[in-house]
Specification:
about 120 residues, mainly alpha, 6 helices, about 80% helix
Amino acid sequence: MVKRKMDIEAALSHLGGSKPLFDTLISGFYNQYSHVDDDIKKLLVTGNQEDARLLAHSIKGLSGNLGATELVEKSKALEVAIESDLNTKASDLKAFSKALNEVLEEIVRLLDEVDDAYEEWT
């Protein structure tokens, strides 16, 4: 059994129990943020610290809505590292990327389950 990277029950609780809304959010997250780690890296390389920090901050909030607690933690650590100009930015970005990719993989599995269920109903 695969360990979940998202607490779906907590996410649904935040969303008033709306599974269609949850499906919309995870699909939108995947479509809009699947390369956000690369985006943050590019911002850091070009010296745009504030935009990189804001992007990490946004992912922290969005991942909280999805129940992705590990990604919340890694986003927060990255945000702090960027804000404080810490030497840990590279390792924090690597940990963030790993957590992001695990959540994205879970989103793909969840969306496949929804597609399979829809095919059974039609």
